């Protein structure tokens, strides 16, 4: 059974995702699809619009066969660690033979040789990085520029490479390829062209494809019906049910009070112990808090933002602060050990067959019942799910720990 | 100018408080009244129904002349430290010559000699205390029994003393007297009889007097108009305004999310560093959290309660956890230093005269502009006010730090 892996957030699952899913299957000739999906908090440092169970259900309804949770320790990270965690999970199943991701460039021609070089992380690359960061570049910009400088043949080539890597999906794709190299995974990479512009669109574009960002914004401002042209019917049904149950739509402002309370009651010394609170941001937080235009997460992000700190970096920092993620737990050496388990969020009947095969092939423990498994990363996932649940419009009775008691979603 | 001191919470100010105020003036023959008032969090470990500014305004409208804030480091403490902080502030003004408090016994006859003995905190008392606590008594019960055992002449006398001290206002009064002894304050104590039963009444009693607890419950369940027989018109007006502005009514459930987030994301080791998290309560919290009937503060208190831990002790612990009050800052030696300043929350025209006199008489700095003064206890007051403000139904623009920017209330 040929099996393709995809890495997703489905926030929420929309028509563009369905297209990617179908093309991935067609391009790789796969019979089954394994999706690695982020839990309650996402790569750009935002809470997902609906719970991971609801989003896993969407994935299964679309046709995915197995949904594996990317632990929060990897899910809320820069491209490098996000990709490393996701690829390690796909490789860990022992049943995935290809990986298909969207990229603006739509080809691996430039990315593959670059990944082979960068996987070794030469001293030259590190020196270039340090140099750019010192000049005040933010991390993604510094990485793109350093990689281009190290790899390119001449000035013109370097600039075109730098521009290519400045596109978010090219950059993420590069890191999937680097992770495949480093993990020596026997998984064949594929890419499908996608327009990065869609991602940042605030207003739906033409036809039936709109970016997830635009869709979330529409849901929050105009309600669920407004996005029906852009999402499959099952996404609509599932979101409708979650909203009726007071479990969605979730967004940053629902965490305003715990986030402000944490920042207000912890001095710079305590904040500095947390992941991503770096380079004096603890003092910047202290200085900016009393000057907030209003007590909202949005106002806080505005107040903290500088050229050096992207909104994404700041949002991720706020997630780590809110979840009390200490620096030691999130250190490079801790993350380099990779995810410690395959947490199954849901599976189809084909997924059940994959799970049977995985009893022999998986190099990581398969976790169907989280309450019967112990791992420090799983503790963090539990925290994240409980804090997320506590932020719901109507937290359900006994819901805080439901993540650890309910079996995977099946359809 | 004869000046009487009173210690209040005004949660909210009701007809019973007005009666106490008038009797205090009459009994002491005072021309002016100084009220020491708790800030946003109260002695029994609860958020006040309205902000300290609103409550200071009620006090001034009633006729109080000067309202001084009891720092949160003393306000959310057992009777011993609460009384010590309050009496130290009254003594620190240098203008207060009497203190009048309500007590169930209505006389100082038994309390005064007891206070003189207990102020020395003999080894015998400490041994008796340790003994009772080890037998599983909670702190107030152990103290009452130990004090009775040390002081009483014979079995019968001990039992009647123990019963007398079991009444909350007698116990608090005893600690005011002990504090006066220890601080060698030249302030003459008076007491006025009050019925303790009223305090715990859940339903308003006869006539126009109802307990603050009953009044708060009525406001939350039936609205403000339901309590108009029990509160002065200005309390009604001020509460109405605060509710219209989305600043009241405040109660524990408004802090559900930050409290749960704090407990969910901090392991036992981190919780144990906080004040009042003692005797393994950090493990009890960890065990009980996943078993909550619903994600509410009420359910949490129910789950944590045992014979040994009174609801009050647990509520205070939750305040300290939410405000991140470390054990070191709240240690006996830190508290024994006393409050470091007189924070003026409001004053009348007579209060202005008192403030002028205090320029010569006060033994503590008088703080009219908190932003121009630095003290670790004031930092804690700032935190408390900001966390309180963030929990309001509609946190106002720039309100989080308004406590530090607005001048005292005047009428």
UniProtKB/TrEMBL annotation, chains A, B:
The protein's name: tRNA(Met) cytidine acetate ligase
Catalyzed reactions per annotation: cytidine(34) in elongator tRNA(Met) + acetate + ATP = N(4)-acetylcytidine(34) in elongator tRNA(Met) + AMP + diphosphate
Entry superkingdom: Bacteria
Chief location category: cytoplasm
Family annotation (HAMAP family): TmcAL
Subcellular location: Cytoplasm
Family note: Belongs to the TmcAL family.
Main function: Catalyzes the formation of N(4)-acetylcytidine (ac(4)C) at the wobble position of elongator tRNA(Met), using acetate and ATP as substrates. First activates an acetate ion to form acetyladenylate (Ac-AMP) and then transfers the acetyl group to tRNA to form ac(4)C34.
Organism listed in the record: Paenibacillus campinasensis
EC numbers on record: 6.3.4.-
UniProt keyword annotations, A-Z: ATP-binding, Cytoplasm, Ligase, Nucleotide-binding, RNA-binding, tRNA processing, tRNA-binding
Pfam families assigned: HIGH_NTase1
SUPFAM superfamilies: Nucleotidylyl transferase
Record's keyword annotation contains Signal: no
Primary gene name: tmcAL
Record-listed ATP binding positions: 7-20, 102, 169, 194
